[in-house]
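Protein details
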Amino acid sequence: MLIPVNATTAGFAYLVGVLVIGANWGLTESIAGSIFAVLCFNYYFLPPILNFTIADPQNWVALFAFLVTSITASRLSSHARNRAREAQERQEEMERLYAFSRSILLTDPERSVSKQLAALVAQTFNARAVALFDRSAGEIYRGGPEDFPGLDEQLRITALTGAQLESDTSIITAIRLGSEPIGSLGLTGVKLADSALQGVANLVAIGLEKARAQEAATRAEAAREGDELRSVLLDAIAHEFKTPLTTIKASTTALLSGRLDGAEQQRGYLTLVDEETDRLNALVSDAIQMARLENGRVQLQLEQIDLAEATRRVLDQMRPLCEDHPAECAFPAGLPKVPADPALVELTLRQLITNAAKFSRPHTPIGISGAVEHDRIVVSVRDQGPGIGEVDLPHIFDRFYRGRHIKHHVPGAGLGLFIAREIVRAHGGEIWAESTLGTGSVFHFSLPLAQEKDAR
């Protein structure tokens, strides 16, 4: 009535409508559209107009054509949609596998890698629960917000046999490195294609192997560093032993020769022997103390100690060494006591005062002071030596490190400041230095006023 078209044109128009419905919706919608198109075609375009004559063979032909068209279009559309959905799912799985592979590279070697891998699988693939059985460790590591109950035995069986186990809610697959299973992986609440599941298992195997390779490399590096440390320690001690041994040998040779004039000369040589023997003893003690501190074998014997009194005791013991450097102590009255190991704290003070005496200019004083800062006491040892350059300052507490400008001029093995640092750290304190070339140096160390627990 509005647009003059014949029945054939109208039929094709309805056919296009059915195709559109079949391409964009499902089979049910396209069949309903076909029936509606047949009824409209019959009512509006086939004579008698505005009347249903379903008995007319033309109506049955039209209905059949529309139904075949709708079914074919919907099947093709459904197939295309399924292919597109599968392609989208594969793409998402590939993106998740890529994200998972990147996450494996960022695992923290200081923490359990197996536990991190289980958590990463759950996080990356939105699994409700993940269980990872590491066959070499014999442990099951879990990840995800839920538990993976009752499947521990299946995880072990899969790791031994390599068989894959599936149920309605979970799947367990073997983790292989080559042809040999090295563990198993169980997932709940996630549906993965077989290829994606094997990709996850292979990446987990790579992560486990990477962790084992890192552990082996760390052990090899530790062994290499241990050998290197022993070599350096022996070289340093041999070098430091050479001077006092030479002095002792020369003194004893002179004493045994019988050519000395009087008791005064003999006393002088014996004094040299005594001083160099003390030096040898100090070197051996430093090396032993360093080894104990590094291995954590030193147990702190905590007592409430007065740092001012401890400093005075150390200065009395070191009077021969410091006779050319008068000590200026500045500890305020009423300085609170600290919980610390008296012997180790005094050893720290000896190391810092010895260091100050070595590098101070002749006849210059050494300043020692203490003060309360917040919840700790800070002790400072000041010298008037040549100072420490910016290049050397960050490394002066390193083991065997000696400044480039003094290593050949001032005796030492480079252990004193290292030992002091380890002792202070064992007490939960800090040690640091401030220095400028030409103006001397100040070494500070702090001890907390309360010890929550022993560091070693």
